[in-house]
Amino acid sequence: MKVGIIRFPGSNCDEDAYHAVVDHLGAQAVFLWHKDHDLQGADLVILPGGFSYGDYLRAGAIARFSPIMREVVAHAERGAPVLAICNGFQIACEAGLLPGALLRNAQLRFVCEQVHLRVESIATRFSARYHIGQVIRIPVAHGDGRYTADGDTIARLEGEGRVVFRYVDAAGHVTHEANPNASLRNIAGIVNERGNVLGMMPHPERATDVRLGSADGLPLLHSIADALLTEVNA
Amino acid sequence: MTTTVQPRPGDPEITPALIKEHGITPGEYERVVAMLGRTPTLTEVGIVSALWSEHCSYKHSRPLLRTLPTEAPWVLQGPGENAGVIAVKDGLAVAFKIESHNHPSAVEPYQGAATGVGGILRDVFTMGARPVALLNSLRFGPLSSSRVRYLFAGVVKGIGDYGNCVGVPTVGGEVVFDPSYEGNPLVNAMCVGVLREEELIRAVAEGVGNPIIAVGARTGRDGIHGASFASEDLSEASEAKRPRVQVGDPFTEKLLLEASLELIKSGHIVAIQDMGAAGLTSSSAEMAARGDVGVTIDVTKVPVRESGMTPYEILLSESQERMLVVAHKGREDAVREILERWDLEAAVIGEVIAEPVYRVTEGDRVVAEFPGTRLVTDCPTYTIEKRESTALAAARALDPHGVTPLAEEADPIWTLERLLSSPTIASKAWVWRQYDSMVRTSTIVGPGSDAAVIRLRGTDAGVAMCIDGNGRYVALDPLVGGRIAVCEAARNVACAGARPRAITNNLNFGNPTKPEVYFQLANAVAGMGEACRVLETPVTGGNVSLYNENPQGAIHPTPTVGMVGVLDSLDHVTPTAFQRAGDQIVLLGDNTAELGASEYLQRIHGLTIGAPPSCDPAAERRLIDALLDAIASGLVRSAHDCSDGGLAVALAEKSVVRRDQPFGFAVDLTAWADLPLRALLFGEAQGRVVTTTSDADALLALMQRHGVPAQVIGEVTDASSGIEFVIGAVSARSALEPLARAFHDTIPGIMDGGSPAELAVATSHAPTTD
Amino acid sequence: MTRYRVAIHIEPRRGILDPQGKAVAGALHSLGFGDVVDVRVGRYLVLDTDAPDADTARATAARMCEQLLANPVTEDFHIATVEPA
Amino acid sequence: MTRYRVAIHIEPRRGILDPQGKAVAGALHSLGFGDVVDVRVGRYLVLDTDAPDADTARATAARMCEQLLANPVTEDFHIATVEPA
Ligand SMILES: Nc1ncnc2c1ncn2[C@@H]1O[C@H](COP(=O)(O)OP(=O)(O)O)[C@@H](O)[C@H]1O
Ligand SMILES: [Mg+2]
Predict the structure, then answer these.
(1) Nearest-5° angle of CA B481, CA B484, CA B490?
(2) Are B434 and A55 within 8 A, CB to CB?
(3) Do residues C11 and C76 touch, judged by C-beta distance below 8 A?
(4) Which H/E stretch holds residue D27?
(5) In A150, A160, C24, C76, which residue has its Cα 20 to 30 A from B432's Cα atom?
(6) Of B224-228, B339-343, B346-350, B372-376, where does mean pLDDT reach its minimum?
(7) Chain C contacts of A107, Cβ < 8 Å?
(8) Cβ(B626) – ligand 1 distance below 6 Å
(9) pLDDT digit string (tens) for B158-199?
(10) Which one of B306, B764, B768 has the shortest CB-CB distance to D66?
């Protein structure tokens, strides 16, 4: 499997994503420059975390116009997988790859910590290796992570099982305190209609080694690899 | 070529008043006139004022700094460069440095702190190192003041926003609240970077004909005179200087970081330096002086943000995110190409010349010219008469045991809770949750422990780091306080499992021309030097911030020590918190009757009195050697040193620091029942580490071999058992939850109250009333 | 072509939580401005741009808002003024 | 007392670096809005507040800006409009 990691000016989790897929999945990975027009045959595209264009104006607002984004959108329209993490999630929303928007954390502060997530759907190519209701620990690190969408959109996301991860407490309960940014319905990660684009604020690429505090992000990466392999074999 | 320097049309006349306004003394002015053989121009006055400011010239501290040890086999670069560098393992090295942004942060906390982080990052990556960690050391007045809460919130947000955006984890630091910092907050930032030894580059201008290139952001009118501003007492006059505040752009910094590292690897350049304090002036003059070459710079070639800027303004601007590069002749286009890829500008603004002069032109007109490198080398140094403050000497002489206990103190748990809720001791998670401490996925130990640990990718090795300093100790006894600052930092690094290797330091003091302040400076430096020699942790660099005074008085003299240590194996990483019920608690070092200068006296009685605890660097060295031996032998499950709040606080912290994984303890201190109870529980005797182990016999035997006192004092219990002290006939017990609340909820409780400080957090903007 | 200065207001859409507005209102109350009932915090942009006439400047600015400056999911924009710069 | 709606413009002071404005200008250029010469990004606040009359509302809002809403070191403010709410 070949992974293309997009590098926008201001991306800063690009290398972490690289190490996650290369060191732990043994995948081949390439960095794709925001001015490029070619995904170099990547099977999986990662929109990594960071502060593209300094998050000036709105997080992700400027990056979405980068030349490479046209290719990323085309890749997604072909049904190929896109993993959008943190700033990548913000960019994906701005680009219309995912519905909704990510606003300033209600506490008005950046928050970096390990949080608990409940796996709400395993019927996606990003989460098949988890089990439903599983509580995992994955860190967040963001200032603009409050997921918002209009009522219809939320209803559709919920109705179609497209909420993949939700912020919960250690016991798996959806609580106000467990929500680090006041996202609607504690939403931490969603997929698009076709199920091939996952956007999430928490950083699975940072949860790849117990020495870093958690390895709960690895099943996510393995799920993607499994799915790609199945596709090739199918 | 002979040139004549002439005043620019419209320049004001050089009068004694103008010289004074520039912070140049009459004696210094005479030196300038003698050096030039004529009256300086306004531009030249500006240059001298910047370069001879305390901040750039160290004129009151250099003779003292020279006494510090700077060498060890692992030191690759000592003081004198943008950052120090030590070898670690397998050809890998780390560069690190600390820098203060005290004055800018007092005026505009958000931008002041943010630009402080920007500056220290540049100091590290201009050595060819990739920044991998940031730390910070902060001092504020008491949080009861809304102005202080505003400053605290703004500084923390400024540090966080900048480092988070650049993508360098902020992994540690310290925050102390004490009335002495009320008008003069301290903001020291430290950066650690990793490089391959062969990639080390120095900021030395070389090669006649080589172009000098300005890189990065454009030059605006911001921060003009920042360097001399940082060298004055804070007063109403400095309030009037507010518009000089600089605004940071971490996004541009990130691009500059990547571009600079690429430039250094490319081999196209000879030298690179940050345009930091005093901007273009100091960077160009210092690079020329290090290379002992001449330079000429044409200010009309400098990309500017605003029209009509004078040479004076261009030279002294402190616009952020700019670099000065000396490239190999003929490689200008290659340099430009790299920068363009990162959307950055580069402009050739001058050249290295054979003629021994420092020359600035504005097109054809020479506006400043100094002979050779004398601008840097001729700066005077001052040695001031030393005299101890009689008030402080008297405070030291007071007997802390004579302080009448409060009635509530009959219950030591009451006192313990008060100490755990002292903002200086309480958890700083409110602060570091705002810092991305995990980006780069190398943070093995983040904030909240004695020291942070970063792994070195591709090896099994790690680097541990911390910042420490205790102004109260230094105020009451500068020599002992200086020793303790270094020893405590070393102990912290050792508790994490690392061998302390070298320090950087920031000397935050008052006005050095006062004999009482100079006494503190001289003795603190002497104490630090002693400890560094014994611990074999040489000083590879640092920073001096003087004049931290306001009309109400000076700050506590506050040297902060940034210590870097090395772990040969990540298996040696040792946590602070208790790990398992049933483990034995072993105290390394010994308890004493010392109570002076303690957080206990400050928090419970509002007193800064008594002598600070004695500090024997040789004993600390034995302790550290023994602890590291024990860790390497797999005998230590957790380690935490005793510092603020003493033994009782250290034990309680080990219990509650991990709120999600608390443990209780039961200890018996009857062996020390003859010591005053307050001193035993809350005194701050040095050289102590609380460890836990599953093999106490082996640990005690190992300690004995090293000649380090050690005793089993109790056992780790389940959280539900709470904590228990037995001291002879006295015993005290508590459930964990009240202690955990005191420790964890104090700062959020103060800061999250919807006060104007909250708004500062929300908008980064200032409430101007209290 | 004339140079125009266009002032743009961008506001969080009513109904969407505005924590910044809430924090500002709280802070104003604690400073003694008790008569403040509600605060909304948005963005204020000033563009200097060349255009043949003021109407074109306004129309172009509106397109900028639609494409980039305002988020259609969460924000409303309003071209406040267009004046020769 | 009447309820007024006060609109406030807060702008980065001229001469002070506005990295956000710079980034937005760059983005507009690359979107083809080449006629944009300069962009400043500030804040737009809408306060609803009770006051005996419009002049008092305006004067109070100005004091709020001085004390809290605008950063006196880096920003300028302007009370744009005061209207009955
Ligand atoms: N307290 C100190 N101890 C040792 N060296 C110091 C100290 N303060 C400054 N230095 C050294 O003096 C040199 C000049 O420092 P400085 O002017 O702070 O550099 P910068 O231009 O980055 O501000 C540096 O190499 C620094 O490491
Ligand atoms: Mg420097």
Answers:
(1) 150
(2) no
(3) yes
(4) helix D19-30
(5) C24
(6) B224-228
(7) 19
(8) no
(9) 999 999 999 999 999 999 999 999 999 999 999 999 999 999
(10) B768
Q: What is the mean pLDDT of chain B?
A: 93
List, for residues A195-215, the tens digit of each pLDDT value: 999 999 999 999 999 999 999
Q: CA-CA distances (angstroms) from residue B190 to B456, B509, B693, B725?
A: 18, 18, 33, 39
Q: Whose CA is nearest to atom 8 of ligand 1?
A: B543
Q: What angle do CA D4, D10, D16 make, to 5 degrees?
A: 170
Could you say which residues from 9 to 68 on chain C have a Cβ atom under 8 Å away from some Cβ of chain D? 9-11, 24, 27-28, 31, 33, 35-51, 60, 63-64, 67-68
Chain C residues with beta carbon closer than 8 angstroms to that of A104: 19-20
D4: three-class secondary structure by DSSP: strand
Is the pTM above the cut of 0.90? yes
Of the candidate ranges B217-231, B750-764, D2-16, the one whose mean pLDDT is the lowest: B750-764
The total number of structural domains in chain A stands at 1
Chain C with chain D: Cβ pairs closer than 8 A: 98
Model confidence pLDDT, tens digit, residues B516-552:
999 999 999 999 999 999 999 999 999 999 999 998 8
Closest-approaching ligand to the CA atom of B98: 1
> At A108, which CATH number?
3.40.50.880
Q: Which of B340, B122, B158, B345 is nearest to B245 (CA)?
A: B158
Q: Kindly give, in sequence order, each residue whose CB lies less than 8 Å from that of residue B524, ignoring residues fewer than 6 positions away.
A: B474, B478, B479, B481, B482, B485, B507, B509, B557, B559
Question: What pairs with residue B553 in β-bridges?
Answer: B550
**For the CA of B278, the nearest ligand:** 1
Phi, psi (deg, nearest 5) at residue D55: -65, -40
Confidence check: pLDDT of B29 > 90: yes
How many domains does the structure of chain C reveal?
A: 1
Q: Which residue of D has its CA nearest to C77?
A: D44
User: Using the beta-carbon criterion (under 8 Å), do C31 and B767 form an inter-chain contact?
Assistant: yes
Whether B755 contacts chain C with CB within 8 A: yes
Which residues on B lie below 8 Å from C40 (Cβ)? none
pLDDT grade for B227, boundaries at 50, 70 and 90: very low
Interface residue of D24, D33, D39, D41 to substitute, partner A, most A CBs within 10 Å: D24
Query: Is B401 known to be catalytic?
Result: no
B496 neighbors B574 (Cβ within 8 angstroms): yes
3-state secondary structure of B194: strand
CA distance B359 to B362: 10
CATH number at residue C42: 3.30.1280.10
B654 vs B643: CA distance, rounded Å: 13
Pocket-testing residue among B543, B544, B546, ligand 1, by greatest number of atoms within 8 A of Cβ: B543
Identify the domain containing residue A159 by its residue range.
2-233
The pair of structure tokens assigned to B576 is: 């602070």
pLDDT tier, B244 (very low <50, low <70, confident <90, very high otherwise) = low
Pocket lining: B51 vs ligand 1, CB cutoff 6 Å:
no
For residues B85-90, average pLDDT: 96
**Single-letter amino acid, residue A157:** L
Q: Determine which of A91-95, B353-357, C8-12 has the lowest per-residue pLDDT on average.
A: B353-357
Kindly list the residues from chain D whose CB atom is less than 8 angstroms away from the CB atom of residue C51: 35
Give the range of the structural domain holding residue D20, as residue numbers without chain letter: 2-84
Tell me the C-alpha to C-alpha distance, in Å, between residue B578 and each of B282, B661, B683: 50, 9, 22
* Cβ within 8 Å of residue B655, ≥6 positions away: B577, B578, B662, B663, B664, B665, B719, B723, B736, B739, B740
Q: What is the DSSP string of A153-188?
A: HHHHHHHTT-EEEEEE-TTS---STT-SS--GGGEE
- Hey, what are C58's tokens? 């306004």
